[in-house]
Amino acid sequence: MKPNPKDFPTIPPIELEMYQGLIDEIKALKKEKDAIVLGHNYMHPLVYWIADFKGDSLNLSRKAATTDRQTVVFCGVPFMAETAAILSPTKNVLIPSLKGGCSLADSITPQDIIKLRLQYPGIPVIAYVNTTAATKAEVDVCCTSGNAKNVVRWALQQFKTNKLIFLPDRYLATNIARDLDADIFFPTKENQEIPPTDKAIQIIGWDGSCEVHKQFTVKDIESIRTEYPTVKILAHPECSEDVVAASDFSGSTNAMIAEAKKTLDRPVYLATECSMADNILTNAPGCKLIRMCSYRCPHMAMITLENLRDSLKFNQYQVKLDPEISSRARLSLERMISI
Ligand code: 13P
Ligand code: SF4
């Protein structure tokens, strides 16, 4: 299998030639080890291309659970590989590098959630899937950016309340609150008392954020509109509420890709991690994407063809979870999936 330079407008042909040996090795190792490779939408274009399944974190983990292959290599960040391991407890789940983290997943600990529950008894807790297994184990239900509003409605009904705790992303929480016409309150050290509200829904947020998406500003959006007046701007809901409001569409990475693919008659700008534009160009060459690669996730960038090869070769790095944490975290994920 040889990458066609036409499909990789962002990689010089000479570089593609240089990678050919590695690509052949990875292909052979996948076969020899009977392994499946999953690639998040933010992967380097060649890692993405070689992956058997591509997509957002939850869809990839669900794919891993349905495959009959025993070894699953997750090309993404550690919380994603953990999610795959939670949903496939008997499989050998590997991540090619342990160096990545995630500013969102790392913004909250299980102890923080225990404290929140003591502070706000009886209020259900929803966690975005961009969290560690230990966080998922402490909450009532998980959600993705795509299903968050449905999960919020479900939790309010299930727990017979008008209040809920939504963590850890303050921007996703604020964007959801706006869509649901809900009140949102962020407790601080000085003020933890929930204020009165006349809204039907009240969300208690957490001050976590994605270090990539929080960098987009309304000024970025305005200057792109000035330069390209017919542009369609797609923003990930981890961007600030002002950026999302100034954009034309907001959704998960899978939803953004679908929207870009059907917008062939005008330029498209993606307010998200910049490798995704490269990957859309490989898979949907008709898209007129404005590529201004400004914000790359340093954690996603830890995955390379080299460490993917080594992961398959040396069976590294195995994702090992405490079985008790894993089964409690699975419950939060399964609740979401059943909604
Ligand atoms: P999704 O692919 O689930 O939309 O998540 C985006 C993201 O930031 C993953 O790290
Ligand atoms: Fe975390 Fe943001 Fe990187 Fe995704 S893009 S892994 S949310 S820091």
Give a topology summary:
Layout: H1 13-33, E1 35-40, H2 45-50, E2 53-55, H3 57-66, E3 71-75, H4 78-87, E4 92-94, H5 110-119, E5 125-128, H6 133-138, E6 141-143, H7 148-158, E7 163-167, H8 170-180, E8 183-185, E9 202-204, H9 218-227, E10 232-235, H10 241-246, E11 249-250, H11 253-262, E12 268-271, H12 275-283, H13 305-314, H14 323-338
Parallel strand pairs: 1-2, 1-3, 3-4, 5-6, 5-7, 7-9, 8-9, 10-11, 10-12
Helix pairs in contact: 1-13, 3-4, 4-14
The structure holds 1,3-dihydroxyacetonephosphate (13P) and iron/sulfur cluster.
Residues 77, 102-104, 130, 210-212, 273, 297, 299-300 line the site of iron/sulfur cluster.
SSE string:
HEHEHEHEHEHEHEHEEHEHEHEHHH
From the 3D structure, determine the CATH topology of the largest domain: Rossmann fold
- Overall number of strands: 12
Q: Stretches where pLDDT falls below 50 for ≥5 residues?
A: none
Q: What would CATH call the homologous superfamily of the largest domain?
A: NadA-like
Q: For the report, how would you describe the main beta sheet?
A: 5 strands, parallel
CATH class term of the largest domain: Alpha Beta
Which strand order does the major sheet show?
A: 6-5-7-9-8
Gyration radius from CA atoms, angstroms: 20 Å
Give the class from helix and strand content and strand pairing.
alpha/beta
Determine the N-to-C terminus distance.
40 Å
What are the defining features of this structure?
339 residues, alpha/beta, Rossmann fold, 3 domains, five-stranded parallel beta sheet, four-stranded parallel beta sheet, 14 helices, globular, binds 1,3-dihydroxyacetonephosphate, binds iron/sulfur cluster
